[in-house]
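Collaborator request, handled under Task 6.
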Amino acid sequence: MALRQIRYECDEILRKKAKPVKKFDDKLCELLDDMRETMAKNNGVGLAATQVGMLKRAVVIDVGDGGGVIELVNPVISETEGEQERPEGCLSLPGKRGIVKRPVKTKVTAFNRSGEQFEITGEALLSVALNHEIDHLDGVLYVDKVIRMCDPDEEFEDDDEAAEPDGGTTEGKETDAAKTEAVKPDEPDEKEDKL
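Structure tokens returned to the collaborator:
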């Protein structure tokens, strides 16, 4: 495994649409492993392949609920329900946060690294992360959907209705249980809500 360079807001690759993964091979496994390590090292909640310069439809997510890292290849949102407004940050836009309206519940169909199809349903923070990361694969950043940008010192309630701001942790916080064939969990790191 190796750390990958995170691409920042001004990098045009973040605005490009990622291509479907066709080969489930060692290169894909290496990319997913590197993305997991890069996300963990940067205390992220999620990371899309486009954020490390790869136009592949692959994401990794870890909301810090003890469920471990979720890997999604060629993810497609199949169903959403409800609305929630939560603060979001992004590893590609360091130091910024904004309030974004997202579904409360999201169902996604995807493939694992072996090419096996599965479904995952996420609520609350996991729903936000699924939508945020899949948006990245379509060249969309959360700032494109932001209701308002947050002040740097703005605080939010520490409950399930509001994500922790950058610098906060989701560890020990109830989020949601995903119904998935998730990859075996690593030791949980403190997480910032940087998707």
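The cover message to the collaborator said: "The radius of gyration is 15 Å. Strands lie at 46-48, 58-61, 70-81, 84-88, 98-102, 105-111, 117-123, 146-149. Please let us know whether this matches your experimental observations."
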